[in-house]
Specification:
A: alpha+beta; 12-stranded mixed β-sheet; 8-stranded mixed β-sheet; 26 strands; 50% helix; globular; B: 3-stranded antiparallel β-sheet; 5 strands; disordered C terminus
């Protein structure tokens, strides 16, 4: 049933016709025309009332009332557009910031993986890898033999799922004629079935596919959309990955973007056994790839627990199997070696990458919660102030017979309107903000708000709506119907109690503002310190790009890079050239133990023996501008036939040579099979990231080691670094027409990516601090100008009695300075607590940084003065006679 | 209800009976509101007091239940009037309500006819 079927007019017409017919009848019965008319009318007299009652029984009544209340609300808000706009924008900023940050936190930390029964899934972890192994992550990656042992059990886990990327970035792919790049993972046959990821089309992999290393591929829904425009005929298409043909057999369900948190995987293939499809795109090590190399721990594992098995039980049950698998091909733990222990962790959100983000995200969430608190109290105060000036309106309504319920409904309707408008704006704001954040943080997975976020936001809004509706009610009712009869502005606005409340709220806001400003200050100073951190090299003028040539033999590879060197050196504008296996400032590094003079060096108990190494070419130190302390750089004469040479940094010398001169000593790989003579010692400089601490480092010469693959090429150029790229591209094409330049960028920009999180968090924190300042300022301004308005009469009297303008200004200023003082007294201890919590996110600045505190305190005082200057000026301009006359 | 005439010979309609009487008065074809009121009053030999206000509300209710339908027409003395007519559903309801009413009244009568009970006089 939809509302009234007949209009009231139609009903009224029927009654009218009834009266006429009835009157006709009565006249025929002999009554006079007038009497007949009267009787007819009398008989039908209460029909209207009945009709009204009837409609009121109709359950759509409330909607009509609501509509009326809303219309009234809109009209009343339009009467003070300034107030409405301020309230809506304040709400939108407060709620929007919260929604945005919460949806990021939700996507990264809380949301389950988009798979079936995500609660049964666990990431497998190990306490460490066996000695003499290389890892991607010392606790998160496993060798193939460890995986193979674990997957053979079936007591505590239904499935073990393995996945490993084909490259740290993107891998060369060709569909049709033109080469392109995409992100691909090699996965176990259990990947889709074990995770419970549905296929939008086609089929997933089977255990047989894994055993056969079947050349089939499943592409992601996203990739299908992006690359194939959802062409339904894509199944059966051949796609070449690093030159190997794969047939596309499936498309994964929409929303599943793989398990490489933050990056969306474009395609999956079963675990392969071809050299050109080695895990992580690595060249084979002594002819071995990940499948048969027990010293390379490179695969991530996920398990699906059997129902009713806890992760602790499962880990305990698998311990001995795991140990066996871990040492398969390694011949058991060495003397005194602590064997790895298996553990499990619930698989959630971005999983592998989540931990790094957890702390900053909690911190940001805390900041936006404070912003929200300030925003909500601001709007509440605005409402209080506005409704105080409307006391007469309420009083008049009460006097005219409006019930308290009617007033409440009207206030609620206004509040609902404000909150709805603010909420909608906030949601749009959050959508834009999350997209911007994802772009900024290079996160391809979706951070957009989901249902959970919607529910949380709606609850916040609902609480706000009720709060804003109820807060002014007491004041509205306290007016009482008699107030309307009074005329004095002074008498109608002298409730000391509520102004006390307002002052307490402003003081609280100032305290929160201090906390936010201190936090922002600390983080911004951290960012400054990071950006000013010396890298230990001349980073300006460096440009870097990767090439991944087809390498058929060590000889051919070495020849290729010799050609690269000569081609690059010929280019006008290039000062010097070098190559390296791991690009500096990309978070990647080779970590392993190294022998010194034939044996693993002694380290004081508990110390780490880990050395970060890199494989580099001639001119490495010169090109980067790293100061050489002792000895020399690699040069063109360090060929495969020359004596093997290596370079170390001062930290290596200090820790493993204990002050002795390292030049001429032998260092080597952890098993000692490759030995090289130290020919140079360099100053410590940054390798993986800007914020790393000095660590022992060593460099191998690329042409001397028995392994060669894709490399980063680094050029020192005159003028703008990136301007050299077109000519570089041309020169490389002369070597190999199919070779693209991968990820070309300046070395500075490359290093900056390692602090992109800090940059992001510091800027956000700064933004929230600023937002808090603006909100507090508007709140204070609103409260003060309202109070000055209310006190116009009082000020007039004071001035009439001889108060000077300066005194009046001081009276208003003092008021807000007192509030600021209270806020600071409250805020500083709070900020100290917050600062301690931040400690671990800081770099080069103490939690008790005097500068940050001073700036925060001065900021709050500035806000107090700025916000009160206008109202104070207005108070000072009060004309005593005018003020008194309005009484 | 200030306009209700206080006539002791007339009794107010029991809840729900008005619907039945309206349906009954429409059996012989479309009738307008005033006609329904008159018909009920006349056929009950002026025993029932038909409150015109309630009548229209009842008509409205029956129309919404789709027991009757209405359309505007012209009365015998050329007045515009809204004519009501039974629907198929209305006829069903009339039959049902009539038998329901019969059963009710006969049951009540049987009770009232028992003369051996305690002496009770109707006022």
């Amino acid at each position: 049933m939809f509302g009234r079927k007949r209009s009231a007019k139609d009903f009224a017409e029927e009654i009218k016709s009834h009266i006429e017919i009835e009157a006709d009848a009565l006249r025929e019965e002999g009554l006079s025309a007038d009497e007949a008319q009267r009787r007819a009318r009398v008989k039908v007299g209460n029909a209207r009332l009945e009709e009204e009652r009837y409609y009121q029984r109709n359950h759509w009544m409330w909607l009509e009332n609501l509509g009326r209340d809303l219309r009234l609300g809109i009209r009343s808000l339009l009467q003070s557009p300034g107030f409405a706009l301020t309230a809506i924008v304040t709400l939108a900023l407060g709620v929007g910031a919260n929604t945005a940050v919460f949806s990021v936190m939700n996507a990264i930390l809380l949301a389950s993986l988009p798979v079936e029964h995500a609660e049964q899934l666990v990431y497998l972890r190990t306490s460490n890898a066996p000695q003499g192994t290389g890892t991607i992550d010392s606790s998160q990656t496993f060798s193939y033999s460890a995986y193979d042992a674990l997957r053979r059990q079936n007591n505590v886990m239904d499935d073990v799922i393995a996945f490993v990327p084909l490259s740290p970035g993107k891998v060369a792919v060709r569909i049709g004629d033109i080469p392109e790049v995409a992100e691909g993972d090699m996965v176990s046959g259990t990947f889709f079935s074990g995770l419970g990821v549905r296929l939008a089309r086609g089929k997933g992999f089977t255990a047989q596919d894994e055993t056969d290393h079947a050349q089939v591929a499943v592409i992601s829904y996203n990739y299908w959309t992006r690359r194939f425009a959802r062409n339904p005929n894509v199944l059966g298409t051949t796609m070449y990955v690093n030159g190997v043909a794969f047939t596309i057999v499936g498309i994964s369900a929409d929303g599943f973007e793989g398990l490489e948190g933050g990056n969306s995987t474009d395609f999956w293939i079963p675990l392969q056994n071809k050299v050109e499809l080695n895990a992580w795109g690595n060249p084979p090590e002594n002819g071995k790839i990940y499948l048969n190399n027990p010293t390379w721990w490179c695969m991530r594992l996920i398990g699906r627990l059997k129902p009713g098995v806890s992760k602790e039980q499962a880990a305990a049950a698998l311990q001995s199997t795991f140990k066996e698998g871990a040492y398969a091909g390694l011949g058991g733990p060495k003397q005194g070696e602590k064997p790895p222990t298996l553990s499990m962790e619930r698989a959630k959100g971005f999983g592998e990458n989540a931990q790094a983000q957890e702390r900053p995200l909690h911190m940001l969430m805390g900041m936006v919660a404070l912003v929200l608190l300030i925003a909500l109290t601001n709007v509440a105060m605005l409402l209080l102030a506005r409704n105080a000036t409307r006391q007469r309106e309420f009083s008049m309504k009460l006097a005219l017979g409006a019930g308290r319920l009617n007033l409440l409904k009207q206030l609620l309707a206004e509040s609902v309107l404000l909150v709805t408008a603010g909420g909608l704006l906030a949601w749009c704001f959050a959508l834009v903000a999350t997209r911007a954040l994802a772009a900024w943080a290079h996160i391809e997975a979706s951070l957009a708000p989901d249902d959970t976020v919607l529910i949380v936001t709606l609850s916040v809004l609902a609480v706000a709506a009720v709060l804003f509706g109820l807060a002014p009610l007491r004041m509205a009712l306290s007016a009482g119907p008699t107030l309307a009869l009074k005329t004095s502005a002074a008498t109608s606005n002298t409730d000391a109690g509520k102004s006390k409340m307002g002052r307490a709220i402003v003081a609280l806001q100032m305290a929160l503002c201090v906390v936010l400003l201190v936090g922002a200050g600390l983080l911004i100073r951290t960012l400054r310190n990071l950006q000013d951190t010396p890298l230990g090299m001349k980073v300006e003028g460096l440009v870097v790009f990767n090439i991944s040539p087809k390498i058929t033999s060590l000889e051919q590879g070495r020849a290729f890079y010799r050609d690269v060197y000569s081609k690059m050196r010929e280019l006008p504008g290039v000062e010097s050239v070098t190559v390296m296996e791991e690009r500096l400032g990309s978070w990647w590094s080779d970590n392993s133990d190294m022998t010194v003079d034939g044996k693993l060096p002694e380290v004081p108990d508990g110390g780490s023996r880990t050395v970060r190494s890199n494989v580099v070419g001639p001119g490495f130190l010169t090109t980067l501008g790293v100061p050489v302390l002792e000895g020399r750089d690699f040069n063109d004469s360090d060929t495969v036939n020359a004596p093997h040479v290596g370079i170390i940094n001062e930290e290596f010398a200090k820790r493993f040579f204990h002050g002795a001169n390292p030049i001429g000593h032998m260092i080597g790989t952890d098993h000692g099979e490759y030995q090289m003579r130290v020919v140079g010692v360099v100053k410590n400089h940054k390798y993986r990231s800007i914020d790393e601490e000095p660590i022992p480092m060593a460099w191998y010469e690329y042409a001397q080691i028995p392994m060669i693959g894709g490399m980063s090429v680094e050029l020192r150029v005159k003028g703008k670094p990136l301007a050299i790229l077109p000519s570089v591209r041309k020169a490389i094409r002369q070597l190999d027409p199919n070779l693209p330049l991968l990820d070309p960028t300046t070395q500075r920009a490359q290093f900056d990516t390692t602090i992109s999180n800090q940059i992001l968090f510091a800027r956000l924190a700064g933004f929230f601090g600023l937002l808090a300042v603006v909100l507090v300022a508007t709140g204070l301004y609103g409260t003060l100008s309202y109070r000055v308005n209310m006190r116009t009469a009082e000020i007039g009297v004071r001035m009439a009695l001889g108060a000077r303008r300066g005194q009046v200004v001081w009276m208003i200023l003092r008021d807000s300075l007192v509030l600021a003082a209270v806020g600071i007294a409250l805020g500083v201890p709070l900020a100290m607590m917050a600062g301690n919590a931040l400690e671990s996110s800081l770099y080069g600045v103490k939690a008790m940084d005097a500068m940050s505190y001073a700036i925060a305190v001065l900021g709050v005082i500035a806000v107090a003065v700025a916000a009160s200057s206008l109202p104070a000026a207005r108070a000072a301009s009060v004309e005593p006679l005018q003020a008194l006359r309005t009484e | 209800m200030a306009t209700r005439e206080n006539n002791p010979d007339r009794i107010a309609l029991l809840q729900g009976t008005l619907d039945l009487l309206i349906l009954k008065s429409l059996v012989f074809g479309p009738v307008h509101g005033q006609g329904v009121a008159r018909a009920i009053q006349r056929q009950s030999e002026d025993v029932f007091l038909v409150d015109h206000g309630s009548l229209y509300v009842a008509l409205q209710r029956l129309e919404e239940k789709k027991w009757i339908r209405a359309k505007w027409g012209v009365s015998e003395n050329n007045r515009k009037a809204r004519f009501y007519q039974l629907t198929a559903k209305g006829r069903e309801q009339l039959a049902e309500k009539t038998s329901e009413w019969r059963r009710l009244t006969s049951a009540v009568e049987r009770i009232l006819d028992v003369t051996h009970g305690p002496e009770t006089e109707e006022a």
